[in-house]
Amino acid sequence: MAKYILKKFNDNGEKKFEEFFDRKLKNKKTPVPFKYLNDDNLTQELDIKIEIDNTKTFKSAYEFGKYLDLKLTDLKNIRFETGIFHWLTLAFFNQLFPGPSGGSQKIKYILNKKAPSSWKKHLVRLRWELHSQFKEKSIVYLSKGINNWSDEEESISASPTLISSKNILDLYTKLYLRYDKKKLPKIISKRNVPGNHRELTKELSIYQLNFDINRMSVDELLNLLGPDFKKWASTK
Amino acid sequence: MGKYNYTKRVELFWDIDEVERDVFIAVSSLEKEFYLILNLEIILKKIKKNHSNLNEQTSKIYCEIYRGAFRKEVSLGTLNEAFSDSFSNNNFQVDDRISRNLDEIDANRVSFRIIVTNKNNQILASSNSIKPFFIGKKEEIKKIKKNREHPLFATKISDEIQHPWDVGFENDSDKAKMIPVIYFNSKLDIASECETDDRLTVVIFSFAFKELLRRCLIMNDVEDNKYIQEFLKFAEEANSNFKVEEIQQQLASSSESDEIYSPDIELFINNAVEKYLEQFQLLKKYENARQNLNIQSEE
């Protein structure tokens, strides 16, 4: 592995990458075809030269999203450039696959052009998108490892209203994000404890029908919530 | 809208007949803008039914535009003074107070939502996710609003075509909902160039019209498709001597595969193209664009 100049898979490149992924699912020993990254028949060059270092390791999905946002910042209108995101997925494949418990769901790695609504489940594109929209605040959703599709990502990506709201992100941060003594981020909510982030997402999905949650301040949002949720705000 | 309705909110309708529609939204991929018409009279009536003490001055209207984690929020004023484009006496008027630019997002793939809130952040009215009308140029809104018709065809940016542009049908898995469309290749910038150069628009749109009409004529089982039926009706109105039904019968009874290119049908199609060019003043626009270009080069 090495440093590469970012390219974009053409249709054939995307097809070959998906074929590789399908083979990998069947046989975990299938080697990762990094040669595709520089194959002129499978890729096209971008207008600007961007160096991608796929030997770089990331402490968290947040660090990964930050790196991608920084690298892609000068490219315009890449939101729907599946060829770029697939190229990056292959470049960092060894760090992304499989998940910590062996997870290998296809939509986490392959962007289905016929189902763009599923793209928010993609391990590369979502991290880039969240960091590019919310910058350092995105850490509340991205504190886990880069191959770990976290509960926070799962719950927030279920709702277009919630995932796009800065105020909701601030509320999540106030309730659930803390830093340990080494100043490393940690999510304090637990699945089995009432008022956790999954329950909050469900609750907000109902509130958003009745209240203008996108334009309410964090304190106004907190006032709507019951004690099971409010208690997290004062939890160290 | 009964589920979890704690604020007596009312639903704003957008995908129903023109007379009952609360909100109309159209998107021009070419101009990267959206246009929005609120039927304020109906909206107010609906809200007041549930909120007799409604304060119109403090009730705000918002349009939210979504795509993934991207969200653009556009203020539409208050119920007392709403920002809304309008259509009356065949005149489409844009409201300059609306921030209608869609530059930051792919205009082909956005959803809209309208919400009305009171000063306590309670939602008084909201729409579900609105899929806009896709139009070429904003002038096409006149046709939709005046005749309560759909645009003859939509435009979309596509990464699935090989040519610079192409024609086809969206929703082609459902014959009742197929929509004629001009596709622009996402790898090229033709859609933007159409925006700034009417000559390109005329060249592409006139031929696209012709090809889409030809395809509509040979389609079977599309009697319930309002888009295609309106397209065919438009063409029929340009032809005093031919009926669409007769042409379709002629096509059905012929064993020749190139019957669709027969002189009669070619004449039918050409008459329709002529009407299309005239109605949208495309030749005039072409001439104006050419003259502007000449002036610029002389300067």
Keyword list:
heterodimer; A: about 240 residues; 2 domains; two-stranded antiparallel sheet; elongated; B: alpha/beta; Immunoglobulin-like; five-stranded mixed β-sheet; globular
Describe what you observe in this structure.
The complex is a heterodimer of chains A (about 240) and B (about 300). Chain A is mainly alpha-helical. Chain A is about 45% helix and about 10% strand. Chain A contains eleven helices and six strands. Chain A has helices at about 10-25, 60-70, 80-90, 95, 125-135, 150-155, 160-165, 165-175, 195-210, 220-225, 225-235; strands at about 5, 5-10, 45, 50-55, 175-180, 185. Chain A has a two-stranded antiparallel ribbon with strand order 1-4. In chain A, α1 (about 10-25) crosses α3 and α2 (about 60-70) crosses α5 (about 125-135). The relative contact order of chain A is 0.11. With about 300 residues, chain B is an alpha/beta fold. Chain B has two domains: about 10-135, Immunoglobulin-like (Sandwich); about 155-299, no CATH class. Chain B is about 35% helix and about 25% strand. In chain B, the strands form four sheets. A five-stranded mixed beta sheet of chain B has the order 1-9-8-4-5, covered by helices on one side. A three-stranded mixed beta sheet of chain B has the order 3-2-10, with no helix packed on it. In chain B, α3 packs across α4 (about 200-215) and α4 (about 200-215) crosses α7. The longest helix of chain B has 20 residues, at about 200-215. The N and C termini of chain B lie far apart (about 60 Å). The chains are: A mainly alpha (about 240), B alpha/beta (about 300). Chains A and B meet through α5, α7 and α9 of A and β4, β5 and β8 of B.
